[in-house]
Amino acid sequence: DPVLRDLAQAKGKYYGTAVTASKLNGTYATIAGSQFDSITPGNEMKWESVEPSRGSYNWSGADAVVNFAQAHDMRVRGHTLVWHSQLPGWLTSGSWTADQLRTLMTDHITTEVGRYKGKISHWDVVNEPFNEDGTFRQSMWYTKLGQSYIADALRAARAADPDAKLYLNDYNTDGTGAKSDAMYNLVKSLKADGVPIDGVGFQGHLILGQVPSTMQANLQRFADLGVDVAVTELDIRMQLPVTDAKLAQQKADYKAVTSACAAVSRCKGVTVWGFTDSDSWIPDVFDGQGAATPYDENYQPKPAYYGIAEAL
Ligand code: XIL
């Protein structure tokens, strides 16, 4: 079988996968460490994972992913520092003043980015800041701190590791539209204000047969603002059961997304959100849907895997 990381590297890109740290052994680890040259912890670096009670940290899962990456010559995408979801209860239930909350946020960034200084190439600093209509999501960050939380988060991350590439990341921004326009305008204004922003992540949680036709043009317009871009959480879900026709469509879809990145010189790479259907969040969250990744539940490559290879 072709080796995705070698094909990507020949094009100056990376090909990555999200993983579950506790599964990094046996065939799962062999495929992750040989086919991919970038790794994203699916959950292990989220705030609720690393600081389940205030001031008491658990880095075991995060460390395991970083150590695995170093052993297999992979880069790490840190995910994620400031998000509305998967926050610890002590944080969401506290009644903080704005100043307290801002300090909690920046201290969290300083601690986590600092711990992995020099070991994490890219950070998703702020995740999912927008609503579908392009207004700011009413997260605790936005409602208590206003839009400035984004610049403050980026500045804290830059101070903690000046060499890490700092990204904003969101979903349903893959093609052009109101939400993508909002991200575009945000990046433009951050750049104008001198805020440290290096890249934009496009999650790529897509539906079979619905890769946006504007994806390449959309990636390019962000690149033209002077930032890197990446597809950070690619999966392409289908209504179950699987059929050969659906797998053929999925192959075309994976090929189209990978080709869009390959065609944009500032697109640094693609990360799939789990490489095997046995390790995908889709069946848990989207009723009746699944089979969203390039390998089946028995670690056999699907047509989608060959679609990726054809695009590289
Ligand atoms: C998902 C994980 O894959 C699941 O295991 C977890 O239960 C929920 O979060 N956008 C993101 C990711 O940025 O962090 C999410 O990951 C999927 C959607």
From TrEMBL:
<keyword id="KW-0624">Polysaccharide degradation</keyword>
<protein>
    <recommendedName>
        <fullName>Beta-xylanase</fullName>
        <ecNumber>3.2.1.8</ecNumber>
    </recommendedName>
</protein>
<comment type="similarity">
    <text>Belongs to the glycosyl hydrolase 10 (cellulase F) family.</text>
</comment>
<keyword id="KW-0858">Xylan degradation</keyword>
<keyword id="KW-0326">Glycosidase</keyword>
<keyword id="KW-0119">Carbohydrate metabolism</keyword>
<keyword id="KW-0378">Hydrolase</keyword>
<keyword id="KW-0732">Signal</keyword>
<feature type="domain" description="GH10">
    <location>
        <begin position="1"/>
        <end position="311"/>
    </location>
</feature>
<feature type="active site" description="Nucleophile">
    <location>
        <position position="233"/>
    </location>
</feature>
